[in-house]
Amino acid sequence: MSGITYIRGDATTPSGKGVKVIAHVCNDLGGWGKGFVLALSRRWPEPEKAYRAWHRDRAHNDFGLGAVQLVRVDRYIWVANMIGQRGTRTGSKGVPVRYEAIDTALAKLADEVAERGASVHMPRIGCGLAGGKWSRVEPLITERLVARGIGVTIYDHGGDASA
């Protein structure tokens, strides 16, 4: 499987065979409580626990924009917590999404995914509460993942996510 496949569905129940990594964007404040993370937490407690511990111990680890944390939640499923937004609110510096951080995180994710022989599954990362535009995020996914032969499935979970 290569390229980006778009389907309507729930990214927390990734389709297909083999090892799967569910990727999503987190903020750099340690906040977990709105958007896609709620669906993740309903399904598995581990990604939230790992993210909060990662943030809590950030003086001693790589927590920050562009960082990636992989958390195993099932024999064949991992969740990638990617730090791709500064804060949680739109303010004087614009929307929270940071495209450079998403790009950096996707590059790191590509290495991890290739090592596991996995496919990547995600909502339209950075385009919900983070305020990003899919026209800016999709090329990053294509360059960092698809160009390396990694299969990517994007899940639209109702509503218009074409921003």
Automatic annotation (TrEMBL):
Catalytic activities: an N-(ADP-alpha-D-ribosyl)-thymidine in DNA + H2O = a thymidine in DNA + ADP-D-ribose
Stored InterPro entries: ADP-ribose_metab_enzymes, Macro_dom, Macro_dom-like
SUPFAM superfamilies: Macro domain-like (SSF52949)
Domain of life: Bacteria
Domain Macro: 1-163
GO terms, biological process: peptidyl-glutamate ADP-deribosylation
Name the UniProt record assigns to this protein: Appr-1-p processing protein
Species of the source: Streptomyces fuscichromogenes
Lineage of the organism: Bacteria, Bacillati, Actinomycetota, Actinomycetes, Kitasatosporales
